[in-house]
Amino acid sequence: MLAHAGTLRDGSLADLAGHWAKADVEWLVAQGLVNGTTETTFSPQNEITRAQFSALLVRALKAPESAEAKFTDVKPGDWYAGIVGAAVKAGLTGGFSDGSFEPDAPVTREQAASMLAKVLKAAGKPAGADVSALRSFTDARLIAGPIREAAALMAETGIMTGTSAATFDPLKNLTRAQAAVVVKRFLQLDDAMLPAGAPLRRRSATMRLWTAATRVRRGRLKMASSVINPCKARYMMRREAVRSPM
Fold first, then answer.
1. Closest CA to 155 of 199, 119, 122
2. CA dihedral 195, 24, 177, 6 (to 10 degrees)
3. Going by fewer Cβ within 10 Å, which terminus of the chain is more open, N or C?
């Protein structure tokens, strides 16, 4: 769920007409994982917030909501209160030193890559990734050191590619459409998505490793029981929206 709007019907989001992410968003709607900003709009080009991205991951993992996490800017009546608690409890995210969570702050592309990569590694994927996968991106130097390996893993698996063939745009904020697309790719990851020549190309071994990860089979989500460790580092955020496919 990307917002607290009412229940959606597949095809009811008017602002997805002709949008590059339409099929992916509607697939997630059918799975009950995303919602709109209203009953008829998805606002695909809006920046996704920390609360919304946490909600998407918590729903994807089928993690139960929790009221354990306490933050100065998360009130019990907020639609995302239980989501934030679940995300923190599962190790998907954390708060800041001043006691806040900043639920309305945007999520950068490198932050999203870091969170998704840790989910994959906790599910049994190889811990390493060849950072040379980032060489094709002219802005790779902008990716924070601790996140370079995560970004490379995203590029190798195809979960998160660049905003163009030459740019990764690590400091740009993730849009709602892009968030939906990368989570769908994560849920449906298959050997066919592994690029030729990537270190993870060993197909039979790779498929065995993926049995612990999130899979989608016969329309029913099967989730890994393991969770990631908190990633509490706070990186630079830009308010500029991303308008290109992932």
1. 199
2. -150
3. N
Confidence (pLDDT) at 189: 73
Which of 4, 51, 8 is closest to 31 using CA atoms? 8
Cα-flanking dihedrals φ and ψ of residue 108, to 5°? -80, 160
169 Cα distance to chain centroid = 15
Cβ of 56: how many Cβ atoms within 10 Å? 24
* More confident call, 6 vs 95: 95
CB 134 within 8 A of CB 160: no
**pLDDT band at 193; cut points 50, 70, 90:** very low
Tokens representing residue 6 in the block: 């009412």
How many whole angstroms separate alpha carbon 210 and alpha carbon 141? 30
Residue 154 phi/psi, 5° resolution? -65, -40
Please give the residue that has the higher pLDDT: either 157 or 176: 176
Kindly report the length of the chain. Answer: 246
| Phi-psi category of residue 102: left, alpha or beta, with phi > 0 → left and psi -120 to 50 → alpha | left
Q: Are 108 and 173 within 8 A, CB to CB?
A: yes
User: Could you please report the per-residue DSSP string of 63-115?
Assistant: PPP-S---BTTB-TTSTTHHHHHHHHHTTS----TTS---TTSB-BHHHHHHH
Measure Cα distances from 191 to 9, 44, 185 in Å. Answer: 31, 28, 12
| Angle between helical axes of 176-187 and 109-122 (0-180°, round to 10) | 20
Residue labelled with tokens 């001043």: 98
Say if CB 183 and CB 57 are below 8 A apart: yes
- Angstrom distance (rounded) from CA 143 to CA 153: 13
